[in-house]
Structure formats: structure tokens, C-alpha cells
Amino acid sequence: MVARFTRWLLCLVGAALIGFAAFYFITKPAPFPESHWAGLGDPDIKNGEMVFWAGGCTSCHAAEKATGDAKLVLSGGLALKSPFGTFHVPNISPDEKAGLGAWTLADFGNAMKRGVGKGGEHLYPAFPYGSYSRMTDKDVNDLWGFLKTLPKSDNVAPPHELPFPFNIRLALGGWKFLYFNDQPRVVLANADDKIKRGQYLVEGPGHCGECHTPRDAFGGFLNGKWLTGAPNPEGKGRIPDITPGSKAVGSWSASDIANYLETGFTPDYDSAGGSMAEVQQNIAHLPASDREAIAAYLKVVPSH
């Protein structure tokens, strides 16, 4: 009897170990090899600055309520509250100890496009690599070049405050297995170059869906609900539906949307508020052609 129980227990332990090994193999961090980032050449700093504004880097990584040149000091520290705990935004200034000064392009690129940190660990998707995965390698290289021109900060952000089991990074591999990919969020037939550019900006560096798309209990986007509005991550109200069928902007023309992104004023002369005010100020740095491209995409994205 004892021998039978021992064999059963050993089989159970063996099965558990095999299952864990299979889970880890499927969900382990998967950075690009160093060779992936070779041969990109010198970064285009001017384009890198445009990518910086499109990505809204300063909105999370600058000190809270920073203005003027202080918005370019990416010292981190902002606390992002979520149903999974509080995330503290890191310092991404060129400081060698507190920031990214000791990182390589490969380190940065793998964080941006694969959600893998310098130490080979999974990153939490509070950092929107789920959107940044759609960025071109050139834009990542150019952004990296621009970030290295910015002021250094020695501020060290506190660690995340996450309860069990969300503090187990290994589980993030399962989240990536379910939700992470670099494919277009929507498939648009007969899209012209302007719409394709708008799709790239909205779905990639602009990461608009991170706030405007509802999520399931595990934090993944709900299928078929792209840009249809979601609870405000700051806790009050809702982030609006911005598809063509929405009450908020469905009646706006492409020109209305482009003007709003430039000036912050709606067709009714209301103004952008809340976190959108800062998003609009970032997008206002982009060339008019990019704002027009975003508007063109938003006018053809499917409504639900």
C-alpha cells in the first residue's frame, strides 16, 4: 500500500514538474537576439523626437505636474493605480545608475517591442509594450537616440506595490501567451497610405487603445471592442468611445478630429480635459500630416 502511494505521489510530482517545465518553455521571456538590432545605423534624432511625442513618454515618465523643459526630465516616480496594485513608473533618463544610461539599443528595443527588461525579466503591461510591439525598428532606434539627448536624473522610483499573485513575474508569461502579439488590431480593406499611417500611430506608438478599449478580468483587451470606450483608469467616469458610431465623436469630421488634436478644442468649442489634455498637447507636436492620418484612421475604424 505504501509503495503504491509512493509511486502515485512520484507520478503526481513528475507530472507537475513536466507541466511547469512546459508552461515555462511556452511563456518564458523571448527577447530578440542582439543581431536583430544590428545594422540600423545612426538614429534620426529629429524623427526620434516626433516618436517621443507620439508615444506620450513625458506624460508618465516626467515628474507629476512638470511643465516646460522639466517635462523632458524623465525621472519617473508617477504612481499608476490599477485593479492589480500600484505601479511606479521608472526613471528612463540617460542616468547611468537610476535610468537607462547603461542600457543598449537591444535592451531598450526588447523592452519596447517584447516586454522584456534588461535583466531578461518579463515587464508588466502597465508599460504599453503591447502597443509598442507594432513600432518599426527604425522608430525604436530613433527614439532611443533622442532619449539619450535628454537631461539625466538620479531619482529612483520605488518598487511596484502588487499583492500576490500579481507580484509573480513568471505569471506574466501566461498573460503574454493569451494577449500579446504584434498584429494589427483591426483589418482595414483598401486602406490608403494616409489611413495606414494613422493606424500605425494609433495602434503603435500612440497606444490609444490602452485607455479607449475595455478589458477583461485579466487586463486583456475585449475582442471586438477596439476603441469603444472603457472605465477611466484614474477612477472617475469613462474614457469615451472614439469609433465612428460613438456619441462622443461619431459626428465629427476628419477635419474636426485633426483640429482637436492640434488645438484641444472640439467643434462645439469645448476643450480637452483630464488626461486627454496632456495627450492632445503631445500630439500637437506632430506634423499636421500625422494628425490628419490619425483622423482618417478614426473615421474608418469599425464601430460596435
From TrEMBL:
Membrane-spanning residues: 7-26
Keyword Ligase included in the entry's annotation: no
InterPro entries the UniProt entry points to: Cyt_c-like_dom, Cyt_c-like_dom_sf, Cytochrome_c-type_DH
Residue span, Cytochrome c domain: 43-151, 193-302
Domain of life (superkingdom): Bacteria
One GO MF term attached to the UniProt entry: metal ion binding
Gene3D superfamilies assigned: Cytochrome c-like domain
Cited SUPFAM superfamilies: Cytochrome c
Keyword terms: Heme, Iron, Kinase, Membrane, Metal-binding, Transferase, Transmembrane, Transmembrane helix
Descriptive protein name: Diacylglycerol kinase
Taxonomic path: Bacteria, Pseudomonadati, Pseudomonadota, Alphaproteobacteria, Hyphomicrobiales
